[in-house]
Design brief:
Strand content: under 5%
Number of strands: 0
CATH superfamily: Globins
Bound molecules: protoporphyrin IX containing FE
CATH topology: Globin-like
InterPro entries: Globin-like_sf, Globin/Proto, Globin_bac-like_CS, Hemoglobin_trunc
Number of helices: 8
Pfam families: Bac_globin
Number of domains: 1
Keywords: Heme, Iron, Metal-binding, Transport
Helix content: 55-70%
Order of helices and strands: HHHHHHHH
Oligomer: single chain
Cofactor: heme
Radius of gyration: 16 Å
CATH class: Mainly Alpha
Protein name: Globin
């Protein structure tokens, strides 16, 4: 008897995406992140690098982070071959703007305060380190 492989890998319920609360939590974090970017003058330089309309990024970043955190990979399937390098190549990311991204994301995660808190904090630190590592 042959057993058909599933069309897609089965979701791992232990992945951070699911443990932290799934799509509603990732959407809340990204909305808070872009709210901070729009409202707090400390992130004005970062804001100015983005398109005038942040609505597409409010859609896109939570989907990217979902796949990155072990959840649904729709963004990656819709964007074959796109990676962090190719996305950000057109932009000059300074240490300042990288630090603004990292701080706004760490704040957004802290404000949404998903559980488990230690996993949420760890995700903020990893994203913060990733962003700071992109600054030149
Ligand atoms: C280090 C500082 C960073 C800066 C200054 C930055 C800046 C930008 C800018 C200007 C865009 C284009 C969006 C627009 O024009 O509105 C963009 C796109 C994007 N960024 Fe960043 N970014 C940074 C870090 C990150 C990090 C750490 C991640 C993810 C972990 C990330 C994920 C993305 C994604 C997924 C897109 C494209 C989304 C899409 O087109 O579907 N960025 N970024």
């Amino acid at each position: 008897m042959t057993v058909d492989a599933p069309a897609k890998p089965t979701a791992n319920p232990n992945a951070p995406f699911y443990r932290l609360g799934g799509a509603p939590v990732f959407e809340a974090i990204c909305n808070r992140f872009y709210d901070l970017m729009e409202q707090d003058p400390a992130y004005a330089e970062l804001r100015a690098m983005h398109a005038p309309d942040l609505a597409p990024m409010r859609e896109s970043l939570p989907k990217f982070l979902a796949g990155w955190a072990g959840g649904p990979r729709d963004w990656f399937e819709a964007n074959p071959g796109r990676c962090m390098m190719s996305i950000h190549k057109p932009f000059t990311i300074t240490k300042d703007t990288a630090g603004q991204w990292a701080e706004a994301m760490e704040r957004a995660i802290a404000d949404v305060a998903p559980e488990p808190a230690d996993m949420a904090k760890a995700m903020g630190e990893v994203l913060g380190d990733l962003a700071r590592g992109m600054g030149r």
